[in-house]
Amino acid sequence: MPMALLAPSPVHVRIPAMGFPDQHEVALCDQGGRPLGPRAQNTRVRILDATVVLLGEKPMRDLRVIDIARRIGSSPATFYQYFKDVEDVVLHLASHVSEFTPELVELIQGDWTGRAGHERGRRLAEVVIGHWDRYAPILRVRNNACDEGDIAFRELRMSTMMPLVRAFEDIIDRSQKLAAAGAASVAQAQGEVAAEESWQGGRLHPMMGAVALASVLERLAMYHVSIEELGGTREQLIETLATLLQSMLTVRR
After folding, report:
1. What is the pTM of this model?
2. How many angstroms separate the CA atoms of 248 and 123, rounded?
3. How confident is the model over 204-225, as pLDDT tens digits?
4. Same domain, yes or no: 128 and 235
């Protein structure tokens, strides 16, 4: 399948203001270290929201401080009171979006067997796709900058993805250990079985399997609009993702 067909769909409509609060920070300060009052905090949020909108229209490398300033009806001098440069504001946005990771980890953890496990997979797929729908401009810029070798964006992406990988790895590892214990009991009871008849395929390495799952989940969410345009529906994609997740996380080898 040509990769050109799977390019993320460009954003043609204005993205609603997201109002990025800094609840984890004790006090917001400007570049000079001075605490921000309510009016200054509002200006800072407008800069963040304007950057998100512009990232939906052009790549980060083509985005200039003056573009952001004009979008909010201000000047570059105002921008520089709050951020060092375009990359600084985009990194802040990407960091904010990454705070969503603990919710995904919590959703991954748990029982993946039976109908409840399948529903867990559907919920995870829906949440991740919805997350990409809302924050696509930021996430796309983060991933592109990471792929281009930007260290700051790479570290941020890794810090976001690794908790998911570890959670998937733990589920696969536990599933394999339970399966191994059950297989040993059956073999002992039934005696030796012909090797060819009992072979179920190669072994899934927990870490490699976890990385594959995290990557598939991210990429399908990132490209889901283009994939659906090739034929199929969002519901079919969610169902397929749920089935894939459950089959990998309840692996028997």
Report:
1. 0.78
2. 16
3. 899 999 999 999 999 999 999 9
4. yes
